[in-house]
Specification:
The chain is of the alpha/beta class. It has four domains: 6-233 and 264-306, Ribonuclease Inhibitor (Leucine-rich repeat, LRR (right-handed beta-alpha superhelix), Alpha-Beta Horseshoe), CATH 3.80.10.10; 234-263 and 330-384, no CATH class; 389-514, 2-Layer Sandwich (Phosphorylase Kinase, domain 1); 517-703, Transferase(Phosphotransferase) domain 1 (Transferase(Phosphotransferase), domain 1), CATH 1.10.510. Helices cover 23% and strands 15% of the residues. It contains 13 helices and 24 strands. The strands form five sheets. The protein has a nine-stranded mixed beta sheet, with no helix packed on it. A hairpin with a 4-residue loop joins strand 21 and strand 22 (507-513). Helix 7 runs antiparallel to helix 10 (622-638), helix 7 (536-554) packs antiparallel against helix 13 (693-699) and helix 10 (622-638) runs antiparallel to helix 12 (669-682). It is globular and about 80 Å long.
């Protein structure tokens, strides 16, 4: 099939018509048009042919969704030296376009704005030129916009502020000029904004300082000027009123306001912008009260602005009635009067409030301090949980230039040999999971997600993605936990292949061996699926394997301390192709913040895995793991998830009331009795009455 010319594709797009050639797959035709422009010499995309099927793996770097539509194009670092074809707009279901780390030239086609399902756009580290298309504002699903390290010029389109799902905007190291659009302050999901090393002028929009999720702002090496927005003072307890007649009564009014960009600390980088001033920033001068921009105003407010037209920045924090130099004395006076009047009114309102409250309290004749209601002591209201975001753990980029153990981090005990053998880079992880495609999603929780992936050597892995805000805030503690995971090696533990952490994505990734047969839960409660019923020898083997794995965790070995799992459940017992059990989640509590660890225990408590002493002493011991192991033995014996009646000893003398009826009596009564006895003693309410795992192994004749 002959490829369709780009001009035809463009014409159809302009007319609003679907691009459907007379024969063949329109997406294949679009891919071939893209190939012709991306790789004109056919050096790197030779696998892309008109007879190929992108959903069958024939097109290198192309992946499809469950509906057979192209969803990802991953061609980063391929050496491509062409340009981006407008035909990309035909791929309506595209969610990820990854063309970074190439040598692409030319403009970003405005037709790219038709990709309304695109979430990730990575065009960084190329030689792209021209302006950023305003049509990007139509890409309503976009979450990551990476255009840095190119030759892009012109201003930042205000339409970028329409992309409400954006979390990362990286535009650094270009030739961008004009002002920072105030519309960027409408991106309430924005985590990171990097505008450094451009030619931007004007002030920093006040709205940026009010973004609730912003953690990194970099505006270094521009020509910015004006006052850095700082907001007001934060959480000031400003008034305490004591009424003499009622000394028990205290009225406290709290004013909660924002510190602005000061709250970012070192994550707000503003160096080499000579016109900036502000309070509370180490390297900035305090702004002149009467001339906040100073005598040598940078563009567009300097003397040249009178003869050289400039784009007036949308972000300028100036009064529209001010002239080029400063506001008039009359206007400043009027502002002062307004401020004084407002202050008087506010004070009057507060005084009136106090008087009203005092009068009402007196009328009510409250005579006892026990009747005081203090919201700070209330226990029946939900408390907002606040956890400081984790520090940037590891600055990790694509093919090279990163070292998670640099800057003295090797002090946590990593040897260079160990760290090198366990480190993945972000490109490997992204490629393995098809850029975290929903098709590969294995499971998801409020703090982590697990994806199936295929490494370049063909091995299948499971990649657990953890948001860094769920991790320990102390970097040294996190890295100690990470080191611990690398030390765990046992046939009955899921093996960690490696790890990688990305400051840009705000995530850490743990790469494990993929266990193909699901978890133990899938082999319980099987009335509707008797084909998956485990036979008796397999059940005994699984019990013994789990016991071996827990015993290994509890043992103190060279280079491995004793570890309490804390969250053993049937969900955590994975079954491989030989039906060998492998315990997952070992040591993860060493990485997670305390409130995340606590939240993971709720489900375990609901299913009866949590040892009763945890509710009284609030800590875990090896005997806590033994308790959970006993519950799992009962589940394997009964073939059921709910075994509370068995744990409490009911019907314990009758094996036929304990063992799974799906076995139809085909089991060893002696082995069943032994396992039931071990389960009962393991789930004793008194921790000291539970055996150690070493004793359990002896009872199972496995020592």
């Amino acid at each position: 099939m002959a490829s369709v010319p780009v001009a035809v594709v463009l014409l159809l797009l302009v007319l609003g018509l679907e691009f459907e050639p007379s024969s063949g797959n329109p997406e294949v035709a679009a891919l071939m048009e893209m190939k012709a422009v991306l790789d004109p010499e056919d050096r790197f995309l030779s696998s892309w042919t008109v007879d190929g099927d992108p959903c069958r793996g024939d097109f290198e770097g192309v992946a499809c969704n469950e509906h057979g539509k192209v969803a990802n194009i991953s061609l980063q670092g391929k050496g491509l030296s062409g340009s981006i074809s407008p035909a990309v707009a035909v791929l309506k279901c595209l969610s990820g376009l990854y063309l970074h780390y190439n040598a692409l030239t030319g403009r970003i086609p405005r037709e790219i704005g038709n990709l309304t399902e695109l979430t990730d756009l990575y065009l960084n580290v190329n030689n792209l030129s021209g302006s950023i298309p305003v049509e990007l504002g139509n890409m309503s699903s976009l979450q990551v916009l990476q255009l840095c390290h190119n030759q892009l010029s012109g201003s930042i389109p205000t339409q970028v502020g329409h992309l409400k799902k954006l979390s990362i905007v990286a535009l650094q190291s270009n030739l961008l000029n004009g002002a920072i659009p105030a519309s960027l302050g409408d991106l309430t999901q924005l985590l990171r904004l990097d505008l450094s090393f451009n030619k931007l002028f004007g002030s920093i929009p006040v709205k940026l300082a009010r973004l609730p999720q912003l953690t990194v702002l970099d505006v270094r090496n521009n020509s910015l000027s004006g006052n850095v927005p700082t907001g007001n003072s934060k959480s000031i307890s400003c008034i305490h009123l004591f009424v003499d007649l009622y000394p028990f009564y205290e009225l406290e009014m709290l004013f909660h306001v924002n510190e602005g960009l000061k709250s970012l600390g070192e994550r707000f980088q503003y160096g080499n912008n000579k016109g900036l001033c502000g309070v509370g920033f180490a390297s900035l001068q305090v702004c002149d009260l009467y001339d906040p921009l100073g005598p040598n105003k940078p563009e567009p407010f300097g003397p040249e602005s009178r003869t050289k037209p400039q784009q007036i920045p949308e972000s300028a924090n100036l009064n529209s009635n001010c002239n080029d130099s400063s506001c008039s004395n009359e206007e400043r006076s009027s502002k002062t009067i307004v401020i004084v009047v407002v202050a008087i009114l506010v004070c009057g309102a507060i005084s009136g409030l106090f008087a009203c409250v005092w009068y009402r309290r007196r009328k009510q004749k409250i005579g006892s301090a026990l009747e005081v209601s203090d919201s700070r002591l209330s226990t029946d209201q939900p408390k907002e949980i606040y956890r400081k975001s984790a520090s940037p753990l590891i600055s990790l980029e694509y093919s090279g230039g990163w070292d998670p153990l640099a800057d003295g981090r090797s002090g946590v005990g990593f040897s260079e040999e160990v760290s090198q053998s366990f480190r993945f880079n972000l490109e490997e992880v992204e490629c393995a999971t098809q850029y975290f495609s929903e098709v590969n999603l294995l499971g998801k929780s409020s703090f982590a997600a697990t994806y199936k992936g295929i490494l370049r050597d063909g091995s299948i892995v499971a990649v657990k993605s953890i948001n860094k805000t769920s991790c320990k805030t102390d970097e040294a503690e996190f890295l100690k936990g990470l080191k611990l995971l690398t030390l765990l090696r046992h046939d009955n533990l899921v093996a960690l292949r490696g790890f990688c952490c990305s400051r840009g994505r705000g995530e850490c990734f743990l790469v494990y061996d993929h266990i193909p047969n699901g978890n133990l839960v899938q082999y319980l409660d099987l009335k509707e699926n008797p084909g998956r019923v485990l036979d008796w020898p397999t059940r005994v083997s699984i019990v013994k394997g789990i016991a071996k794995g827990i015993h290994y965790l509890h043992s103190n070995r060279p280079n491995k301390p004793t570890i309490v799992h804390q969250n053993i459940s049937a969900e955590k017992i994975l079954i491989d192709q030989h039906f060998i059990p492998q315990l997952s989640g070992s040591g993860l509590h060493k990485l997670f913040a305390d409130d995340v660890v606590f939240s993971t225990l709720k489900a375990s408590a609901a299913m009866g895995y949590l040892a009763p002493e945890y509710t009284t002493v609030g800590r875990f011991t090896e005997k806590s793991d033994v308790y959970s192991f006993g519950v799992i033995i009962f589940q394997i014996l009964a073939g059921k998830t709910n075994v509370n009646h068995l744990r409490l000893g009911q019907d314990s003398g009758k094996l036929e009331n304990i063992v799974d009826e799906n076995l139809h009596g085909d089991y060893s009564r002696k082995e069943a009795a032994t396992l039931a006895g071990i389960a009962l003693v393991c789930t004793s309410e008194v921790p000291n009455q539970r055996p150690t795992m070493e004793t359990v192994l002896k009872q199972l004749n496995m020592n």
